[in-house]
Amino acid sequence: MLIVEDLKVSYGQSEVIHGLSFSADQNQTLAIMGRNGMGKTTLFKALMGVLPNKHGKITIDDAEISALPSHQRVANGIAYVPQGRMIFPTLTVEENISTGLEVNKEKFIPQEIYDLFPVLFDMKRRKGGNLSGGQQQQLAIARALVSNPKVLLLDEPTEGIQPSIIKDIAKVLKEIRSMRNLTIIVSEQVLSFTLEIADRILVIEKGQFVHEDMRDNVDAAKISSYLSV
Asked: Which domains, ranges and CATH numbers included, belong to the chain?
């Protein structure tokens, strides 16, 4: 569903992603783990077209999107929940979710979105800025889902969220995958959350992959050593 080949990304003259290659199948969750500053967010921004890639190829469902602007990448089936959620604080919950409908020209929010996130139904007239961090994270995921993506990118979804809500988000992500058969790529630093949701784990360090595990034979101690400062 997603194939990335020899991706290189730079800030000015400084290359920060050094020829990354990886793939993810339909109905698979891939976690990319690493400490802050190791390239996770830069990689996600490059996949979305927020940052240009100076070299490499990105393919979604056999369609190459490497040269497309962000909005056309969304139309080709990629959705992005950025670090910090980036919801619209002055819009209501319902209005926030509706911004994601622009891509597929739908007029109404599907009921399954509110079934997945009942708290958003209860708060749909409330301003996004008045929600808790965990509720805003659910709102950001809901907004991404209404574009009917084939690949969902989640950048640090547990950041700043209390443990009980982290468990709820893990449960919802598993439900989303089974309902939609989509590919989920998540960047994370919390290993317990990652092991709850991921089929496969890649560890990134200084813009390169340094370790890979399938969940069934994960070396938790090894991964933890990469995550510790």
From this structure: 2-83+148-227 (3.40.50.300)
